[in-house]
Amino acid sequence: MGRWLAGRPMKEPGLVSCQQPTHRYKRGGREHVAIPDYPERQFAVTEPNQVWCGNVTYIWTGKRWAYLAVVLDLFARKPVGRAMSFSPDSRLPMKALEMAWEPRGKPGGVMFHSVQGSHYTSRQFRQLLWRYRIRQSMSRRETAGIIAQWNTSSEA
Q1: What is the DSSP string of 43-94?
Q2: Residues in domain Integrase catalytic (predicted)?
Q3: Which of 73, 75, 113, 151 fits 137 for a cystine, CB–CB 3.0-4.6 Å?
Q4: Confidence class of residue 3 from pLDDT cuts 50, 70 and 90?
Q5: In the prediction, which pLDDT does 43 show?
Q6: Could you report the per-residue pLDDT of 108-154, keeping only the tens digit for each?
Q7: Which SS3 state, helix, strand or coil, does residue 154 take?
């Protein structure tokens, strides 16, 4: 029995399912080949503030989706910036980057590596990187499937 079919008999006595809704992902647009993949996954970082990585993850809060953006310094392998919001727009990773950049002494020459998500390809985010003099690097699309397969096989 599917979850929607089971929902009909539950509705009569006033019961509500606690099944979390599925997250709707947008289809990917064109690949941003103009943004290079500098390290090509060769992250040999010898000191802090050389390479930062960014990612946005989705968290179910019980009522709605929340979005968490994290900036990670690859030298220490610890988060240096984070931001959380109920809206997955380009301001979310910008807040995380600002939180990382200010307290770390406004470092120059940092490279920021991320996936090709709309958060990181937006004009506002790229302008912030330019203002902070941070080089941008992005993984190529074909590596996303490889990473997903590796994550699945490493859990087994």
Answers
A1: ----STTSEEEEEEEEEE-SSSEEEEEEEEETTTTEEEEEEEESS-STHHHH
A2: 44-156
A3: 113
A4: low
A5: 66
A6: 889 999 888 888 888 899 999 999 999 988 886 655 444 444 444 44
A7: helix
Q: What is the pTM of this model?
A: 0.68
Q: How far is CA 40 from CA 10, 44, 72, 107, 143, in A?
A: 52, 11, 17, 23, 10
In the three-class reduction of DSSP (H, G, I as helix; E, B as strand; rest coil), residue 105 is classed as: coil
Q: Domains of the chain by range and CATH? A: 51-155 (3.30.420.10)
pLDDT, one tens digit per residue, over 75-98 is 988 999 999 999 888 899 999 999
CB 95 within 8 A of CB 40: no
Find where tokens 């946005």 sit: 56
**DSSP 8-state code for residue 39:** S
Both structure tokens of 13: 């006595």
